[in-house]
Amino acid sequence: QVQLVESGGGLVQAGGSLRVSCAASGRTFSTYVMGWFRQAPGKEREFVAAISRSGKDTYYVDSVKGRFTISRDNAKNTVYLRMSSLKPEDTAIYYCAASSRAWAGAALKSSEYYYWGQGTQVTVSS
Fold first, then answer.
1. Coil, strand or helix: which one is 113?
2. From CA 58, how far away is CA 104, in angstroms rounded?
3. Closest of 88, 63, 68, 93 to residue 80, by C-alpha
4. Which of 101, 81, 78, 80 has its CA nearest to residue 90?
5. Where are the beta strands (DSSP E) in 1-126?
6. Which residues, at least 6 apart from 103, have a Cβ–Cβ distance to it below 8 Å?
7. pLDDT in 10s for each residue of the chain, 126 residues
8. At a CB cut-off of 8 Å and minimum separation 6, what does 85 contact?
């Protein structure tokens, strides 16, 4: 079992940057593909980014490519999402999640993830 706790959300002006983190419990963190999702008010939860177990491969939704960077530190059981050039439409609750998929490229949907954090609010003001 994996428990995930996000942190680092907050209020930031458009064009600014923010890094959110997700700390995982347990000794098996490195065996999971990790992903970030977000859910804005009145909208469905959407995939944002995923990272392979080793951290070498990453995947992004088109709307954040070039602005967001997912990374992980397996020694610290932590996955990060660095967000820059933030836009008001990035406002959402951001969730991290863990998938047992062997290949991160197959973990681009929420249904591929079994463990979820409680989320952290990111608000981008215009």
1. coil
2. 7
3. 68
4. 81
5. 4-7, 10-13, 18-24, 33-39, 46-51, 58-60, 68-73, 78-83, 92-99, 115-116, 120-125
6. 33, 52
7. 899 999 999 999 999 999 999 999 977 999 999 999 999 999 999 999 999 999 999 999 999 999 999 999 999 999 999 999 999 999 999 999 999 999 999 999 999 999 999 999 999 999
8. 15, 17, 67
